[in-house]
Amino acid sequence: MNSLLLVAHGSRREASNNEIRNLARTMQRNSGNRFGEIGCAFLELAEPSIPDGIRQCIERGATRVTVFPYFLAAGRHVTTDIPAEVDKISKQYPDTLITIATHLGASGAMSELILEQAGHQRGDEP
Amino acid sequence: MNSLLLVAHGSRREASNNEIRNLARTMQRNSGNRFGEIGCAFLELAEPSIPDGIRQCIERGATRVTVFPYFLAAGRHVTTDIPAEVDKISKQYPDTLITIATHLGASGAMSELILEQAGHQRGDEP
User: Fold this and answer.
1) pLDDT per residue over A3-57, tens digit each?
2) What is the ipTM of this complex?
3) What is the CATH number of the domain that holds A92?
4) Closest CA to A120 of B9, B87, B95, B4
């Protein structure tokens, strides 16, 4: 089973963490056959941690886990901290392929998503 | 003319600020006839500020400016700080319609964007 783990920074504001949990649930509903299971994890300040999130995927049957950094910029969290967290757990599960996808902000589709969203809202104004 | 102003947090890391400037340029190229001009501004740590960015739009001919918060979570920056910055300048330009779009993280298209991006990358792996 291929699992996708959405990884966000985590916030002291629980409503922000719940936005991520809700997004993961929406993705699960919309996933079709692309991923067997979709979960989320947090770099800090919220649970589950990245190692715990990956471990949960594997315990539920994942043989492959794609970690998706839900971050806009390729700062230290994306380039260093998330790979270090993934590395910790990868060594414990050598038979599971754990990969890290390109972070959200690098998506080539971002430009169009923003133009669509902002354009519609503009159109809705009087 | 309708202008779109992409508003990011701003970073001490200039490469992150340049990611935003590049995104605004990409959006300008892809905009078609949806916006006359697309620029960017920063809440803190980088230039231009939000009031300066809006002022530049207006000086270049905007009669309507849509401010787009390039933020994932509806935290204090989105709910309070950006509206306060926009409010400062709105009073100086009563003839310009300045609106704030829903922040990026609330986009209904986000789920599909991530599934597409993560799914393709998964497919590229051996």
Assistant:
1) 999 999 999 999 999 999 999 999 999 999 899 999 999 999 999 999 999 999 9
2) 0.92
3) 3.40.50.1400
4) B4
Chain B residues close to A110, C-beta within 8 Å? 23, 113
Instruction: Tell me how many domains chain B contains.
Output: 1
- The domain of A110 spans 2-124
Q: A122: distance to nearest CA of chain B, Å?
A: 7
Q: What is the pLDDT of residue A126?
A: 40
**Beta-bridge partner residues of B73:** none
Q: Which residue of B has its CA nearest to A25?
A: B111
- Summarize pLDDT for B41-50 with one digit per residue, the tens: 999 999 999 9
Q: Give the nearest chain B residue to A26 (CA atoms).
A: B111
Cβ within 8 Å, pair B121-A109: no
Residue B24 CA to residue A114 CA, distance in Å, equals 10
Cβ neighbours of residue B100 closer than 8 Å, sequence gap 6 or more:
B66, B67, B69, B82, B83, B86
Beta-carbon separation of A118 and B75 below 8 A: no
pTM of the model: 0.91
- Cβ-defined contact of A110 to B113 (cutoff 8 Å): yes
Please judge whether B11 and A75 are an interchain contact, meaning their C-beta atoms are less than 8 angstroms apart: yes
